[in-house]
Design goal:
This protein has 569 residues and is α+β, with helices and mostly antiparallel strands. Helix content is 26%, strand content 28%. The chain is built from 15 helices and 31 strands. The strands form 8 sheets. Strands 3, 7, 8, 9, 10, 11, 12, 21 and 24 form a 9-stranded mixed β-sheet that branches. The protein has a 5-stranded mixed β-sheet with strand order 16-14-15-17-20. The chain binds one RNA strand of 77 nucleotides through strand 14, helix 13 and helix 14.
RNA sequence: CGGGGCGUAGCGUAGCCUGGUAGCGCGCUUGUUUCGGGUACAAGAGGUCGUGAGUUCGAAUCUCACCGCCCCGACCA
């Protein structure tokens, strides 16, 4: 490609809309342009990089035995009603109407479609295992699009769906995808960690997320350097010790705490009750009914875990007046002592705890010497707390670390939720009808592209790995006059590299060297071949790896040296 | 949806408080110049000041509504 003939609208200044490095660079390097919030046009250069990511995904999916197909983005709502997600996923569903006023949905994902397909086409265990995938545009009515391609209303996803006859076979399918994902991200030059993840509204049994560590990530992962344990904080646990039983078992004592409505205030003079000796009482409305949630004072509620404990995601914190109606006190003075008319969910850490302090359900009063079991009857015990950095790893006891990360891939073992709802049944060896066991596997392709930039850039611009760079080599002649020796040499190298199948762009613009160098570094081509009059007079050409030191080679050895660098990756 | 911020030329912005000529830098066009790190000089083109209503002799500026964008939040009693 000739620079002068394509469109690479680089920007010297950062558009005001961009906040994080990768978003700024997407715009400054001329890869994408925003149409409106959450919707982007891929310009020629950005599209080339995107296609390379897609191709890596495609190759690895094919290698893993998955079959590519393409499903409609526009979908009938009735299959969403059958799966129950017309309701449960209604917040993200885009809906449109045709001229007959009939409603359609724009697919945020394709479990319903693929399961409908399989229900019709696969009837026997002999036809399995099968794994279908597509690379396609998804539509999600995101609550807040953010950070360019990171969270958009429309984005490109690779989604795959496996169908197996037995649990063991499904396990194998899951493992294949897990391994394929590791290879995909590695080939994209990304450092990822696979973490145990919550299954959320997708349903299903267990899952892993592939995370790119980044300060700008929207997720948090807890991990252990010592043993390799890693989990999304929504799922992570720790081996925090239960509060010790405490020596004495004095009677519960009510004491005045005027104006004290926070854990912190109670932990200070004159009360001096350490946060870990306090019981935090939260009131939620689950399916519209109040429930109490008890945590140690220094712990925080993990709502993903609460979803599991309650068996529903339909809950919210109660408002102050709702709390007063339920307990007769306001937030800050709440407790579960003597509560029998409301369900009580308590975090495991509190089991058997004694000598605790909690609210008295009377504004301005707390209770001390409270013992769980004696004074508080918790009907439900569960792991409900959010892990905190420094807590002991649940596997090996070493301190956990917590880091923000970008989720680029997610593998789920789904089970039979969709196959049952949409009748994807088959006959097993014994002639018995069974629902297929499903897995689903997603990669945010556009997000992966941005994650590469987020993880690989410097002050001058993007540093593309060769595998996903829009062009591998940028030839930079410092004199663009067609008849100049510099340009003729540049053309010759351009032709030879092109003949060898290298993706190469030649900067044939008649701009000054500084402009070309800056642009080439901003866009981040892995290898720049610089040809100037001075060095060429000595028979030399410069090769500058984007992330490495300048190499001077004899002009006639340029192509060989470039090929060598590409081989090395 | 709640809170905050911002909408002035393709991009970045000043002007707004205190109403009266829309200004600067980058980019773009033309010419000269320069020719290894976003050259220099000169001359230009380009603006419904987000939209609409109101106040006023007069609105980018004041008021109201709406639209759009960005950030934080939408759990932690």
């Amino acid at each position: 490609m000739r620079w002068s003939q394509t469109l690479i609208p680089t920007l010297k200044e950062t558009p005001a809309e961009a906040e994080i490095a990768s978003h700024k660079l997407l715009l400054r390097a001329g890869l994408v342009r925003k149409l409106t919030g959450g919707l982007y046009t891929f310009l020629p250069l950005g599209l080339r990089a995107l296609r390379k990511v897609e191709q890596i995904v495609r190759e690895e999916m094919n290698r893993a035995g998955a079959l590519e197909l393409l499903m409609p983005a526009l979908q009938p709502p009735d299959i969403w009603q059958q799966s129950g997600r017309y309701e449960s996923a209604k917040d993200v569903l885009f809906k449109v109407r045709d001229r007959a006023k009939k409603e359609w949905v724009l697919g945020p994902t394709h479990e319903e479609v693929i399961t409908t397909l399989v229900a019709g086409e696969i009837n026997s265990y002999r036809q399995m295992p099968k794994n279908f995938y597509q690379i396609q545009t998804k539509f999600r009515d995101e609550i807040r699009p953010r950070f360019g391609l990171m969270r958009a209303k429309e984005f490109i996803m690779k989604d795959a769906y496996s169908f197996d006859a037995t649990d063991e076979a499904a396990q194998v399918s899951y493992r294949k995808m897990y391994d394929a994902y590791a290879r995909i991200f590695q080939r994209c030059g990304l450092k990822t960690i696979a973490v145990e993840a919550d299954t959320g509204v997708m349903g299903g049994k267990f899952s892993h997320e592939f995370m790119v560590p980044a300060a700008t990530g929207e997720n948090e992962v807890a991990f252990c350097d010592a043993c390799g344990y890693a989990a999304n904080v929504e799922k992570a646990t720790s081996a925090v010790q239960r509060s010790e039983v405490g020596g004495q078992r004095s009677e519960v004592e009510k004491f005045a705490t005027p104006g004290v409505v926070t854990i912190e205030a109670l932990s200070k003079a004159p009360y001096d009750v350490a946060a870990e000796r306090q019981i935090k009482t939260l009131v939620y409305l689950a399916e519209g009914k109040p429930v109490l949630i008890l945590l140690r004072g220094d712990h925080q509620l993990n709502e993903a875990k609460l979803t599991g404990a309650l068996g529903t995601g339909n809950f919210r914190p109660a408002a102050a007046e709702e709390i007063f109606a339920a307990l007769g006190a306001h937030p800050g003075s709440l407790g579960a002592v003597g509560i029998t008319h409301l369900p009580v969910y308590a975090d495991e850490v509190l089991r058997d705890a004694a000598d605790m302090t909690t609210g008295a359900n009377a504004d301005g009063f707390h209770l001390r010497n409270v013992a769980i079991g004696r004074d508080i009857q918790a009907a439900h015990w569960a792991d409900l707390r959010l892990v905190q950095a420094g807590e002991p790893c649940p596997k090996c006891g070493q301190p956990l670390k917590i880091q923000r990360a970008i989720e680029v891939g997610h593998v789920f073992k789904l089970g039979t939720k969709y196959s049952q709802a949409l009748n994807a049944l088959f006959l097993d060896e014994a002639g018995k009808q069974q629902p297929a066991i499903m897995g689903c596997y997603g990669i945010g392709v556009t997000r992966t592209l941005q994650a590469v930039i987020e993880q690989s850039h410097d002050d001058n611009g993007i540093i593309w790995p060769i595998s996903v760079a829009p062009y591998t080599v940028c030839i930079t002649p410092l004199n663009a006059a067609p008849e100049s020796a510099v340009m003729q040499r540049a053309e010759q190298i351009y032709a030879e590299l092109t003949a060898r199948g290298v993706d190469v762009i030649i900067d044939d613009r008649s701009d000054r060297p500084g402009v070309k160098f800056k642009d080439s570094e901003l866009v981040g081509f892995p290898i720049r071949v610089g040809i100037g009059e001075k060095s060429l007079a000595k028979g030399e050409v410069e090769i500058k790896p984007r992330a490495g030191a300048l190499i001077l080679v004899k002009a006639e050895e340029t192509v060989a040296k470039v090929m060598e660098l590409i081989q090395q990756g």
